[in-house]
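The methods section describes the discrete structure representation at length, but only in general terms. An entry of this sort, consisting of the sequence and the corresponding backbone structure tokens, reads as follows:
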Amino acid sequence: MTERTLRNKVVVIGGGAKNLGGLLSTNFAEAGANVVVHYHSDASAGDAEKTVTAVKDAGADAIAVQGDLTRVADVRGLFDTAVDTFGGVDVAVNTTGMVLRKPILETTEDEYDRMFGINAKAAYFFIQEAGRRLNDNGKIISLGTSLLAAFTDGYSTYAGGKAPLEHFTRAAAKEFADRGISVNTVAPGPMDTPFFYPQETPERVEFHKSQALGNQLTRIEDIAPIVTFLATEGWWFTGQTLFPNGGYTTR
């Protein structure tokens, strides 16, 4: 029987410096994988280096790579560095995204372009380059949002920008299937991270909590094992959007 582990594998993590990406980086290292830690800007450079250190402390190897994933050249450069450094890539996880809660009538063209750039364009070309560069039987995992299954206001550009991920995932799963590459999207509920709170009032935070098990937001610790599962024993899932959200919403 084929051993489906992360031992001696190479993982590229978009947004791997902190929050969920940082936790995944260290979890994968503890499971025996070498990690390419992508980060976006100089503001995250310190976090990326701390994560690289944590990966090495766990007994694996890592490298930090800066890049703007809305630029296709930077996406390609990320995978070039991974292949040049470690000889190949087995798993690609894209945790990047940008949140905006704003009424449609108040949203500017620049805001629209920025939101769709990071949430849709970057996600598309990350999947594209992963499909080109991954070893056979690789895994591609993108981070979506449970708002795809919700009926709500305010998140037109965030949920709208993440919505194409489902279709990118389905198409890629079919197109890469002959090489044994699985492609999935994990769509958590509202997450207890620094990205969530600036968009919401305290009253709305309490409402979001009330919609899930235990009256709580989704934690990164709830999501990391699911991503790890898809990268290992969960290989038979492909073309799917999974909604781990404690019952926040379903479809």
Remarks:
- Residues 10-242 form a domain with the Rossmann fold fold (CATH 3.40.50.720).
